[in-house]
């Protein structure tokens, strides 16, 4: 097949991990006989430096005409407050402009990495969960105001915004263990009371075969590290999903492991590791690219419909990890960690491609 893929390396370690992602995409194209046209564009801090905007119109237009977007990470101390325009605004605008309301963040720790986690192996055994984070609503996108004495961030959710993300999550639950946990703060927040009522109705009426439970977000944060194997699909609002997935990343051993797919009404999607630009390690060639490589697998599956290729990538990543090719954030003490590029090369070799 032919596909146009936009590549936004971004800031910090973004270009380092995305460099391995594009190598992998080219190798998949060659090995399976596809033609992927990869086009790079500036976004985030680099785009601010070039054009004063974190999401230049040309970058957005490229993403809109592409089948999928692969992104590294944006942000860094150079553009921190008091800077007026922030790199992160570009990412939020992109998600909103492409209508990507459902952010899929799977967490399935590799047994070879149990020892790298801060949790005990017996807690990690059998963990295979998927967080579906609402991505274009809530406190991220409400009205903001600030004066000398106070600041204000509105959190707004409409019924329609909740309905569509809950449908997406319940549809995914049907392909898995059919258990859905909706996470909110309905004991305090009005938006959460709406969230809970709508979720209850949508699941009861449209997904009677899916078992629905509700959890308050503070308790969910606890259960995620106490009994993570009990979860199947978790659906939650934008900010709770952001926070809970950084926490859940610790089940996998490192934040560098988790991929994500952001999807909307059509097949176009945005794929990025859940971590940030990691300014503390940027430029040294040591960043963990596995989250990006697994995001490439999600891109192949969700936007291009290439399930066989997605599985081949996931198998190559698993083999590389089992073979002990581990970056500095995962390598056991006393062992030599593998660099970013070395890991990319290992995964390509396991895919049966050499590029
Ligand atoms: P971060 O995820 O960048 O880093 C947190 C810690 O995890 C750091 O110690 C970092 O070195 C480590 N880490 C992250 N990814 C890693 C990888 N692939 N390999 C090895 N170690 C890794 O979070 P932060 O420090 O809070 O944020 C830094 C910047 O990134 C901020 O400007 C933030 O806004 C931005 N950010 C961007 C995204 C995104 O683009 N999607 C996501 C999160 C944070
Ligand atoms: C993420 C990041 C972003 C978010 C920031 C950089 C805007 O933390 O993708 O998880 O909060 O959504
Ligand atoms: Mn985050």
TrEMBL record:
GO cellular component entries: cytosol
The protein's required cofactors: Mn(2+); Mg(2+)
Gene3D superfamilies from the entry? Answer: Isopropylmalate Dehydrogenase
* Record pathway: Amino-acid biosynthesis; L-leucine biosynthesis; L-leucine from 3-methyl-2-oxobutanoate: step 3/4
EC numbers for this chain: 1.1.1.85
Q: Does the keyword NAD apply?
A: yes
Please give the Pfam families that the UniProt record associates with this protein.
Iso_dh
Where does the UniProt annotation locate this protein?
A: Cytoplasm
Instruction: Quote the SUPFAM superfamilies the UniProt record gives.
Output: Isocitrate/Isopropylmalate dehydrogenase-like (SSF53659)
A GO MF label: magnesium ion binding
| This protein's record includes keyword Ribosomal protein | no
Positions marked as site (Important for catalysis):
140, 185
Please give the biological process terms from Gene Ontology that the record holds: L-leucine biosynthetic process
Q: Which residues bind Mg(2+)?
A: 218, 242, 246
Principal localization reads: cytoplasm
Q: Which HAMAP family match?
A: LeuB_type1
Report the PANTHER family cross-referenced here. 3-ISOPROPYLMALATE DEHYDROGENASE
Q: How does it assemble?
A: Homodimer.
Role according to the record: Catalyzes the oxidation of 3-carboxy-2-hydroxy-4-methylpentanoate (3-isopropylmalate) to 3-carboxy-4-methyl-2-oxopentanoate. The product decarboxylates to 4-methyl-2 oxopentanoate.
Q: What is this protein called?
A: 3-isopropylmalate dehydrogenase
The organism's taxonomy opens as: Bacteria, Pseudomonadati, Myxococcota, Myxococcia, Myxococcales
